[in-house]
Amino acid sequence: GSVLLRGAVLxxxxxxxxxxxxxxxxxxxxxxxxxxxxxxWEPFVAALGxxxxxxxxxxxxxCPAPAGFGAxxxxxADWLEGEVAAIASASGPVDLVGHDWGGGLVPFVAxxxxxxxxxxxxxxxGIFHADYVWHDFAQIWxxxxxxxxxxxxxxxxxxxDRAAALASxxxxxxxxxxxxxxGDDEMGRCVLALYRSxxxxxx
Length: 203
Prior knowledge:
By secondary structure, this protein is of the alpha/beta class. It is built from nine helices and four strands.
């Protein structure tokens, strides 16, 4: 499922496995991850051809976070629950899809508020396993000092170089260029807080 969805996002196409989403009915909610904003969904949303697809933007990821927002996984889960509740109040239970950290938040909402959800999907369920080991970048971000240094270096890197790095992992260059611009100090702060709130066995 995650491979199908990732390919669809990158190509802006709708594979057979998710073609049913082209049929209007319950609203669809697509939750992005790190270091992303809702723009990653634009090709996929266009391919779906629906007007009831919602792509909420994680606080601090290309937009200001609310005053006092600590950017922990618990705060993000609470925020997402509120977003989904508002959408479901108008449309009924939603089809909820999370990618990367969005996928890390979706199960929290599904567990707490199953009444809001018709179906849900995550491409990172492995992070909830007791033996899961975070990837190398996550371990840098979780380390005091090292994480701050990482984002200081990123801030000093030209946006074109950051965009090229994102494009090298399969993100279309026009989207990668916009993501690079969105990667500001606030996003760095939120990434550090989010990953540090998820040091195992916290997940």
